UniProtKB/TrEMBL annotation, chain B:
Protein name per Swiss-Prot or TrEMBL: Cytochrome c oxidase subunit 1
SUPFAM superfamilies: Cytochrome c oxidase subunit I-like
A single GO BP: aerobic respiration
Membrane topology: Multi-pass membrane protein
DNA-binding in keyword set: no
Chief place where the protein resides: membrane
Region called Disordered, residue ranges: 1-32
Transmembrane segments: 54-75, 95-117, 137-157, 177-205, 217-244, 264-288, 300-322, 337-357, 369-393, 405-430, 442-466, 486-506
EC number: 7.1.1.9
Compartment(s) where it occurs, according to its Swiss-Prot or TrEMBL record: Cell membrane; Membrane
A molecular function GO annotation: cytochrome-c oxidase activity
Organism, scientific name: Agaribacter marinus
GN (gene name): coxA
Keyword annotations from UniProtKB, A to Z: Cell membrane, Copper, Electron transport, Heme, Iron, Membrane, Metal-binding, Respiratory chain, Translocase, Transmembrane, Transmembrane helix, Transport
Length: 205, 547
């Protein structure tokens, strides 16, 4: 029948030619797939880098700044509002002693926060800061902050948590007013340390 | 033409003649000539046509399953108040409906069409990696088995929306989240393997003379889609993995208490998610670009511009993701960038729509069933595109965000867009696959019932959305009651209309109807119309000559 008159050579050549090509193309594509899987994870640090550069998201530095009493810009003063809140399911009372202060850029200021654990269990908290407008976060330098550490409180305990900061005199003129908000999260379950050990303020970790 | 006719035989009769081949020189590829009977044919097949058929039936079954869930949603929303299902179950329905329609219906249907058509259109004997092809299909049913079985677990299935935003999926989700994550992993692996197969086939298996710029538009759009798939499906795999470790292994990618950020989830998700919506529409553009010239009896207007437009849409899709999250808080400059980049996409999309219209312009139009679906696609997809343009405008989006206006928009582009194009494709190529004309009366009923009901279903959603009805809520304010009643009626009618389609397909697969010619549609051009009808089990064992 006609079925046997196929030109065999073309099939053989075709498959011989195609086989190594396919392996090569597949290898390249698999590298793209692996690379993009990695890129998905690379977005995590990249996100923070972008937020840092652009000064958005209102995240302040997570380590203490060193205060250099150089220039104090007395020509203007900035109003800083403080807001405190607790995350859903977090039973602590959390408030700020000074709701709002006026401070000259470059001048050191201190604000005290009050916390009480009314629950019948020991709780470890983490405070997460957020500044609005986000751009001001770049100029907010904290020399001391409870948000740098875990904050443990035994059942029924209360404490004053201090925070000292200065505003970078480079703060753009258009920012005259910003808000710093702290949210307290209950992180007892994710931390292994017992509350009593952490109580001596020997760094959260 | 002898090379083309040498395989003129029905798969069913092929077994009888394979003995003649067993001792000829082709024994190195003798799997080509054995077609096992029964279930093992389908389980073990490496034939692109068999796998295409499997994909298409799977997609259709998932379309009916996901549609049944939509019926539950519409029944609950038929009147205000809670009457039929619990809110938690309602949330599971919206979530799983979305997941199934995106990953179980539209994407596998397009992969099925690619399997059937890409080798036939470029003159290749099969896909480049047939065994991987088998695997990429057969892991898919397990993915959906896992997902669907989670609905019957204690605590129910995923209920955080198909976008699984953190912290809904990390902090507030049930234990079925692990099953959800693994099923998404499997779906992702399946589509990545499918995409690699398509790219390798198109790069390495084209018949001599089939240059890139001679490829049919369907092949072009699928090539670009496949690149989108391998670029973003791994990102989806990454983000579901992060959800998994956040929920079960104590990481805090998306948990502010541990230094993470829930908004980061949305950035990563939509970096996948926006290219994903083009994955679901670019092959549709390809299908329409095949059908419109056939029934206009003209060459496609602006072939090269179609290719460039498709590529530009694909490239732009990587820089617009944040338009899904205007309300999360972003610098105004960024919102402006994402707004203008998004609006820019309407330029290449407009090029395509105008090219289709220009193809029809002064053509000898006839309105066979595939053409009816194609024209409905052009009109209704354009409506969806325009509402998308409205949503792209940042200040306006603040009002439309999370309302039924968004639901109306994406159902116009996905149902009357992607799904209608798939139906058009099935009607267009079904006679080539079965060798017989489908039941035209049923097809007309299917088309007109679907067309009318789909608009009753989705058009009023624009109005309730503009009036402020939020999406994903099982109850609503009284003033939306009348519109929602109409929407539900349209929904039930659209759902029932698909049973006509089911009847038609079953009939077609039982080989009822008039035999068709090789060309099937007078005016159809391309390699797939030069092989016999029904398409033989093996085609282009010898490469065809391309003029």
């Amino acid at each position: 029948m006609e079925q046997n008159v196929k030109p065999k050579t073309s099939i053989d050549e075709g498959s011989l030619r195609a086989a190594p090509n396919n392996a090569k193309t597949v290898t390249k594509l698999v590298f793209v797939v692996i690379g993009m899987f990695g890129f998905g994870f690379a977005l995590v640090p990249l996100y923070d880098v972008f937020c840092d550069i652009a000064g958005i998201n209102g995240k302040t530095a997570t380590t203490a700044a060193v205060y250099e009493p150089t220039l104090i810009d007395e020509s203007r003063s900035i109003t800083v509002d403080f807001i405190t809140r607790t995350n859903t399911g977090m039973p602590w009372e959390f408030s700020v002693q000074t709701k709002s202060i006026d401070v000259h850029p470059g001048k050191l200021a201190k604000v005290d926060f009050y916390v009480r654990n009314p629950a019948s269990r020991d709780i470890i908290a983490q405070a997460i800061p957020s500044i609005s407008p986000g751009k001001a976060a770049l100029y907010m330098n904290k020399t001391e902050c409870f948000c740098f550490n875990h904050q443990p409180l035994k059942a029924g305990e209360e404490a004053i948590m201090p925070m000292t900061f200065f505003i970078d005199p480079q703060l753009p003129d258009e920012i005259t007013y910003f808000t710093l908000q702290y949210t307290l999260y209950d992180i007892t379950e994710r931390v292994d340390e017992p509350v009593s050990v952490a109580m001596n303020k020997s760094q959260g970790r | 033409m002898t090379t083309l006719t040498d395989d003129v035989k029905d798969p069913a009769t092929d077994d009888a003649s394979h003995d003649g081949h067993a001792h000829d020189d082709h024994s190195h590829d003798d799997h080509h000539h054995h077609i096992p009977k029964g279930i093992s044919r389908w389980l073990l097949t490496t034939n692109h046509k068999d796998i295409g058929t499997l994909y298409l039936w799977f997609a259709f079954i998932m379309f009916l399953v996901g549609g049944a869930m939509a019926m539950v949603i519409r029944a609950e929303l038929f009147q205000p108040g809670l009457q039929i299902v619990e809110p938690n179950f309602f949330n599971q329905m919206t979530t799983v409906h979305g997941l199934i329609m995106v990953f179980g219906a539209v994407m596998p249907a397009f992969t099925g069409l690619a399997n059937w058509l890409v080798p036939m259109m470029i003159g290749a004997p099969d896909m480049a990696l047939p065994r991987m092809n088998n695997w990429s299909f057969w892991i898919l049913p397990f993915a959906f088995l896992i997902l669907l079985s989670s609905l019957f677990m204690e605590g129910g299935g995923p209920s955080f929306g198909w976008t699984f935003y953190a912290p809904l999926s990390t902090t507030y989700s049930g234990d079925s989240t692990a099953l959800f994550v693994f099923s998404v992993h499997i779906m992702g692996i399946s589509s990545i393997m499918g995409a690699i197969n398509v790219i390798v086939t198109i790069f390495n298996m084209r018949a001599p003379g089939m240059t890139l710029m001679k490829m049919p538009m369907f092949v072009w759009t699928w090539l670009i889609t496949a690149f989108l798939l391998i670029a973003v499906m791994p990102v989806l795999a990454g983000v579901v993995t992060m959800v998994l470790t956040d929920k079960y292994f104590g990481t805090s990618f998306f948990d502010a208490a541990g230094g993470g950020d829930p908004v980061l989830f949305q950035h990563i998700f939509w970096f996948f998610g926006h290219p994903e919506v083009y994955i679901m529409i670019l092959p549709a553009f390809g299908i329409i670009s095949q059908i419109v010239p056939t029934f206009s009896r003209k060459k496609l207007f602006g072939y090269a511009s179609m290719v460039y437009a498709t590529a530009s849409i694909a490239l732009l899709s990587f820089v617009v993701w944040a338009h899904h999250m205007f309300t999360t808080g972003m610098p105004v400059e960024w919102e402006k960038f994402f707004m203008f980049a998004t609006m820019l996409i309407s330029v290449p999309t407009g090029v395509k729509v105008f090219n289709w219209v220009a193809t029809m312009w002064r053509g000898s139009l006839t309105f066979e069933i595939p053409m009816l679906f194609a024209i409905a696609f052009i009109v209704l997809f354009t409506i969806g595109g325009l509402s998308g343009l409205m949503l792209a405008i940042t200040p306006v989006d603040f009002q439309y965000h999370d309302t039924y206006f968004v639901v109306a928009h994406f159902h116009y582009v996905l149902v009357t867009g992607a799904v209608f194009s798939i139906m058009a494709a099935v009607y267009y190529w079904l006679p080539k696959w079965t060798g017989r004309m489908f039941d035209i009366t049923l097809a007309k009923w299917h088309f007109w019932c679907s067309l009318i009901s789909v608009n009753v279903l989705f058009f009023p959603m624009h109005f309730v959305g503009l009036a402020g009805m939020p999406r994903r809520i099982p109850d609503y304010a009284l003033q939306f009651a009348d519109f929602n009643k109409w929407i539900s009626v349209g929904g039930f009618a659209f759902g029932l209309s698909q049973l006509i389609f089911l009847a038609l397909l079953v009939k077609a697969c039982r080989k009822r109807g008039e035999p068709v010619s090789d060309q099937v549609w007078d005016g159809a051009e391309g390699l797939e119309w030069e092989i016999p009808s029904p398409a033989p089990y093996h085609t282009f064992d010898t490469p065809p000559q391309i003029k």
